[in-house]
Amino acid sequence: MTSPRATPALPPLDASVAEKVKRLGPVDVLVGIPSFNNERTIGHVVRAVVAGLARHFPGARAVLVNSDGGSTDGTREIVERTDVGSLAEILVDAVPVAPAARIVTGYHGVPGKGSAFRTIFRIAAELEAKACCVVDSDLRSITPEWVELLLEPVTAHGYEFVAPLYGRHRYDGTITNTIVYPLTRALYGKRIRQPIGGDFGFSGKLAARFLEFDDWEGPVARYGIDIFMTTTAVAEKLKVAQAYLGAKIHDPKDPGGDLQPMMVQVVSTLFALMERYEPSWKGVAGSEAVPLFGFPYTVGLEPVPVKVERLASIFQQAAADLVPIWEGFLSERSLAEIDEAARGRLPALRDDTWVRIVSETAAGWRHRLLPGETLIKSLVPLYLGKVATFVAETEAGTADEAEARLEELALAYERGKPELEALWARRS
């Protein structure tokens, strides 16, 4: 790991929670569930987690921590009262030493997923947990086996970070597919397919390391938390793996709808971590696979509707209106290729053009050519143009062909890495 920074002061735990933590003492495994108004789904998540702990870790001292963002529905009450039914029917031949303890708590700080995770990390550190995992509260596809797949690489094989690998619809996770996965892969040389997947396993030692981060008031407190966790693990050269979890069925989002805040927070965190960990990614060439736990299998997936004409319209309007902003950080070549891509009925944004745009945006952020939020917001319509291009290229093909197309994009990012390094190093 890099040299530790001074650990920032942590907000206090609620008195009742602190007392419960003190009574529990050290635990072997901890599962965290962040939540906010998830009464429709969280009962299923809790049942799956408790059953998974009982089935796969029957001899472990285990605790479930629900870190809630002030739900006004019945989320917290459901976590506290959910009955897992007859464990004898679930376990068959394994009987837990004791049922998993449950801690339900609010969190302090900026409202968001990252602040919820920070409280989970804090409790994990206080309880000296050996292995931890976190799972989303809106999951409809979680099974007890997820708990095993996220925790066992840590408890039995010495891995320090476990990223999820899902069967996902080709148009679910478009920020991951077009920016976060291929850029993270090119930067750090590790093929972690879902770096912002939401469900992770990690060691208790790494949970304590996460707590040392010194900017919990920024985007890491919200949607930036997932890429922060993944980047910390790969940049600090920890032992990382993936776990195949099957389908991730949750509440998908329309790429042209409500993803702008998420994109701004995720991408700004990614760029900030590029600055923090520059020595870790400079000079890395190519990429390598990471070990995979679980057996990949074909899953049935819910369709993710994409209004490609709407994406095209946003991209084309931006190509007419945003040039004065883009001129602040994009090259004349990129601007000309954007203009060309916007002339057809649907965008045709080539991979090499898109990779150069992302590299120039990262360098523009690095050299403070524009305010960070302004710069990344102006990238959003370009990202939508790339998504529209991908949809047009793949909608008539198979899922495997779509994934192969994304592999081509990832390789384009790797080929563009030297140009990114050059742009990053000098102010244009």
Short précis:
The longest helix is centred in the last third of the chain and has 23 residues, at 372-394. The chain has 18 helices and eight strands.
Description:
The chain is an alpha/beta fold. It folds into two domains: 15-293, Spore Coat Polysaccharide Biosynthesis Protein SpsA, Chain A; 308-425, no CATH class. Helices cover 50% and strands 11% of the residues. The protein has an eight-stranded mixed β-sheet, with helices on both faces.
Give the domain tally: 2
Major beta-sheet overview: 8 strands, mixed
How large a portion of the residues is in β-strands, by DSSP E? 5-15%
Q: Work out the helicity level.
A: 40-55%
Q: What distance separates the N and C termini?
A: 32 Å
Number of helices: 18
Question: At the third CATH level, what is the topology name of the largest domain?
Answer: Spore Coat Polysaccharide Biosynthesis Protein SpsA, Chain A
Low-pLDDT residue intervals, each spanning 5 or more residues: 1-5, 86-95
The total of beta strands comes to 8
Mean pLDDT metric: 91
Strand order, largest beta sheet: 3-2-1-4-6-5-7-8
- So, CATH architecture of the largest domain? Alpha-Beta Complex
**Please, what is the oligomeric state?**
single chain
| Overall 3D shape | globular
Q: Provide the CATH superfamily of the largest domain.
A: Spore Coat Polysaccharide Biosynthesis Protein SpsA, Chain A
Q: Which structural category fits the helices and strands?
A: alpha/beta
Taking all Cα atoms into account, the compactness measure Rg is: 22 Å
